[in-house]
Amino acid sequence: MTAPSIHASAVLIGSRAVLIQGPSGSGKSRLALALIEAVDTGALRFARLVGDDRVHIEAAHGRLLVRPASALAGQIEVRGLGIRQLDYEAVAAVGLVVDLGLTASERLPDPKQMDAVLAGVRVPRLPVAAGADALSLLLARLGTNPAHT
Prior knowledge:
- The protein has a single domain (5-143), classed as P-loop containing nucleotide triphosphate hydrolases (Rossmann fold, 3-Layer(aba) Sandwich).
- The chain is built from two helices and eleven strands, in the order βββαββββββββα.
- It has helices at residues 28-41, 134-143, and strands at 5-6, 8-13, 16-21, 47-51, 55-60, 63-68, 75-78, 82-85, 92-102, 115-118, 121-129.
- The strands form two sheets. Strands 1, 2, 3, 4, 5, 6, 9, 10 and 11 form a nine-stranded mixed beta sheet that branches. Strands 7-8 form a two-stranded antiparallel ribbon.
- A hairpin with a 2-residue loop joins β5 (55-60) and β6 (63-68).
- The protein is globular, with a radius of gyration of 14 Å.
């Protein structure tokens, strides 16, 4: 049986992947590319594309795994430039879900809103309001949780 495909992007950061969800045009690819480029600035030690636009997720031994859709493996959309080819990871365990483009996000979010359940696996979640600086929020979140860096 094939793992379900979802409209999302994923980037391996250190030993865990960040799964980026959101509506079309919310900046999933832009955030994925910014995370990969953050290695060049020293903001992250390691970041590599898992998948862009469409990924497969599945539960395995209590972890949520993410893989690129085979037809899109190694490809990322760069707005204004088109599709670009990058090195990629074939599979990664998800350590954080980022939800982009929300209509609002609370200044001090309810702890109950800080988890997502995908494929039956509970994963920490970072809600990001539309128009917010997703990269800064995500780097701050990663910087306060050493398991992700």
